[in-house]
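Deliverable D4.2, example record:
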Amino acid sequence: MMRKSKAIGIFVAALLAVSAGACGGPSSGGSSETGDGRVNLLMDPSYSTGLEVSAPGEPVYTDLEDDGYFSWASGGEIDYGGTATGTGPLWSLAQHASSYSLVDPAYRTPEVKEDGTYVYSDPAKTVAVNRGKNSITLGIKGSVEYSSDDDGDGIRDGENLLPRSGSEPWVHLLLTSTLYPKMTVRELEKLEFEIDMTLEQCDDVLADRGMEELFNPNAHAAQVTMFFMVYSNAAADQGKYFWFGIPLFDARYDRLDPSIMFDRGTSSWMVGTGTDVVLSEKPQVGKTYQIRYDMIADLKTGLEKCREQGALLNTTVDDLYIQDFNIGWELPGIYDVGITFENFGVYATRKG
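Output generated by the structure prediction step:
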């Protein structure tokens, strides 16, 4: 059944994990200028430095207040069998509320494909990276995560499904990193988010098993959203920010309207652009979407919405800059899902 347009209902982002290398600038790779004069602020677009992976289960946050950050506890690294470059990962991977860990000793040995793709899998999740193609695939089996372990072997069997009631944590598989260098809108002609996105799988397990009566649209979803943290460089608002969300996929809806909500977890406003700024249709399985989006005008709109709520009153659009971000799956519902991102970049074009 086609669902009508609706503002984002489940619109919560995990706090970003910031690696030591990312906090102080690039330890390997670094932003680079393209032939057309644009600067890619993404420090490691090929994922060559590896991934710092969170501990599984509910987030356990480590207080780093002196640095102005909060970082979740690390579970280990994905380093492509020891072939990762640099002095440490410039990417982090959050696997919050999962029952398994991709870096558990039982699962951390990758399968290496002929084309150079490294595939890491645990019973419920898969991450595949091809550094030569600037490609990463994120997959989750919600049918495993939200099921029981009836035989007691430590592996959920995927048979006896246990849908969330709405209050429990839900599974994340989120990429996070930091952009470099810091550039305010005042300096920029354009600030472009670019990515090639292919929805590999989105199986509605409850519907496939004739259990639709258990579906709750307020508690069950499969979502992919690009979240930027948009900071103020104004002296009176220094360190304050809002979340800028670009919804890329929601299994429940054909499209999503612009939205704003307050996130109590981070005490910040969350502004959603709506899907129409980047997509002309709901993503279809197997089809690649080339997303090319200049964010500056909508950053201004987002700031105006925050100011209407009494936030960032000393900030103008010229004071804004983006630094941290996350992208990937939030999976509160029982779906088996996969998505591939290629050619990811955040490009700054300076004025003049």
